[in-house]
Amino acid sequence: MEIKKVFLNQSDMPRQWYNIAADMSTPMQPPLHPGTGQPIGPDDLAPIFPMNLIEQEVSTQRWIDIPDEVLNILAIWRPSPLTRAYNLEKYLGTPAKIYFKDESVSPSGSHKPNTAVAQAYYNKVFGIKRIATETGAGQWGSSLAMATQLFGLELKVYMVRVSFEQKPYRKILMRTWGAECVASPSQDTNFGRKMLAKYPDTPGSLGIAISEAIEDTVTSKDTRYALGSVLNHVMLHQTIIGLEAQKQFEYLGTYPDIVIGCVGGGSNFAGVSFPFIRDKIYGKNVRIIGVEPSACPTLTKGTFLYDFGDTAATTPLLPMHTLGHNFIPKPFHAGGLRYHGMAPLVSQLLLDNLIEPQAYSQVKTYEAGLAFARSEGIVPAPETNHAIAAVFHEALKCKEEGVAKTILFNLSGHGIMDLTGYDSYLDNKLVDYEMPAEEIAEALKELESYPKPKV
Ligand SMILES: Cc1ncc(COP(=O)(O)O)c(C=O)c1O
User: Fold this and answer.
1) Is there a domain that residue 189 lies in?
2) 415 Cβ below 6 A of ligand 1
3) Quick one: average pLDDT of 299-328?
């Protein structure tokens, strides 16, 4: 029998997260206060996040202990398996060896609970009673709903309207885990009401939903905000994925030539790749590829600038690749990748030439996702299909060149609750969107007067 999956023992679970800020040759540039243009300090963030998470956000300590209370909950599904995609290799006729880290085995079906559990824990020990958040596809909202329920916290989720309408089962899942979920823009915040008055038919965006969740946070008692991606501490919590994968490759006695993840705000990509990027910084020959939709091409067509994380311009200014905080992407199916910005850590790694971006159109990603489902059995999330499209590209290149590279990709989630896109694909109704250069230039105009980061 072929060895298909590598499981680690629970006793082999990593006990520390890896903080890449400790190993980057270019120090991270600080977030800025939008009013003064000056670097913001931990106290400026205190109304939004608990101080223990702010400390992680600004930390440059290489290894950070994972609390036992967090490990005990992660152990519900971790360590996640490393799986060899033999059937996909056969389907592609490639000599490449394709492995995937299967984050779809978590209770909510994606990598998001890795940070949701940690964030709920740190809020709880800081004495917070209620969390407000946004969600795109609903993966983050449902993951945080599970985590807040397990730690006895209340949760309100602002869900991007297009996903709220396309993905009813995610709402039910959030309610099942005890959270309240509303479509964003909503009637529940000043900013939501303003957006609805101005754009009654808007599909919403992550930027708008973040604005609503932040407004809720600063106007409610004992409430803090939680973000499912973009920030340094979220990237940190996700590194358990790559750290486990390294142990699994060690067991196999091999090492990947290429590591691939899809990028929305950057967290599952960071999770699988940062430990491998550390090896690359210290001399290992490994390619790291982040994959995005061509309809929201933050890394491939965005510019590295200071920009707001949300549409209402309430967050600090972050140094990141951005399409402009006013950019509302077309309503394509990978809801979790519809974000105008990119994690500052991922953005800096691109400037430092440690990662390569690729962009694929929606139809191409579903083509790859469907072939994966039909060869490996697992139906991937629409976001994950972007990573799989890049795996196809690299594996077919191996075939052309006759080389047997080892490819690792992160199966960031399953698509069992996101089947509408597959339905459209199978009915030949899926539409591709390219973002025109003029539209990007227009969206970035407003940023001309902002302070500029060093490039
Ligand atoms: C399954 C899945 N993969 C990827 C993403 C993209 O987010 P990130 O770039 O933070 O991993 C999401 C976001 O909702 C998701 O649900």
Assistant:
1) no
2) no
3) 94
